[in-house]
Amino acid sequence: HEWVADMSSLSEPLASSLRLVVVGGEQASQQRYLQWRTFAGERVDWINSYGPTETTVIATLGRVPADAHVHIGRPIANTRIHILDAWGQPCPIGVAGELHIASAGLARGYLNRPELTAERFVPDPFGTLGSRMYRSGDLARWRADGTLDFLGRNDHQVKIRGFRIELGEIEAALQACPGVREAVVLARQDGEHHRLVAYLVGEEESASPESLSPESLSPEALRTQLSTRLPKYMLPAAYVRLPALPLTPNGKLDRQALPEPDASALGSSAYEPPQGPVEESLAALWRELLGLAQVGRHDDFFALGGHSLLAVQLASRVRSSLGLEVALADLF
After folding, report:
1. Rounded Cα distance, 119 and 54, in Å
2. Cα(first)–Cα(last) distance of the chain, in Å?
3. What distance in Å separates the CA atoms of residue 316 and residue 79, rounded to the nearest whole number?
4. Which of 168, 177, 306 is nearest to 237 (CA)?
5. Looking at the whole model, is its pTM more than 0.85?
6. Vertex 267, ends 217 and 260: CA angle to 5°?
7. What is the pLDDT of residues 295-330, one digit of tens each?
């Protein structure tokens, strides 16, 4: 799967005898799949598989035709898949829920971890008496043709300013932007608040950060593109360009190694210092609330990570520190 994912390694012609490629492990993106098809043509079958180790590796698989939507197929023999909502009820076709696996290959549990075993290996209300199923922690949905869409992890769901946000949905919107090859979104703690940070790799990045310059992938351009696909509360506050996403020794994404965003990732305007005591005082309040070292007179409060709750605090501090009345509508 790593060989298929690294499109830069696909420079030599495929062997004429090659007829089948089976992938699994990390999620296969639509963009990567289409790149593979361009390289391999239609003579090589692509089979996408899914399954955690707790179910003896493979639980679903399916052939993905050329130019088709990438899915994870159907359950294999002796395996049943349940897509359940928060109340344990089956989700209708097209509705996301947690993927549960009832399988003859189900593990007995985790060694010397009875609490975790009880949490993940639960009774199967749809099976015979005493049967069990595995709560995968993955989000999926049924398609009308009986295949499954993989939607990411449910532990990648965060709550920010009262809104429940699925990070995978933002990542999918980013990957749909022209020039974006890979994207990951994190909710980083910023004082008392969380801030959404997007990490992306462009289509033709090199190992040299100096080469990362296309204007189409600037924070301002990406924010504009995403605003046509996502509501404002789901727009990342920072966009970090990377030559490659960091990986663990076994090839998985290393989220802990993703760097903190700097000022260049926040979409600030060309810096021009504040002018006069009022602007200087306002800039100082912005720096304090947004946790920034520098704020220019043309910067956008919300593009720098501000939001409605911080706007309320800003109005209050302008009133108490400067003796000025500023309505929230003026700030917006």
Report:
1. 13
2. 47
3. 58
4. 306
5. no
6. 90
7. 888 777 776 777 777 888 888 888 888 888 888 888
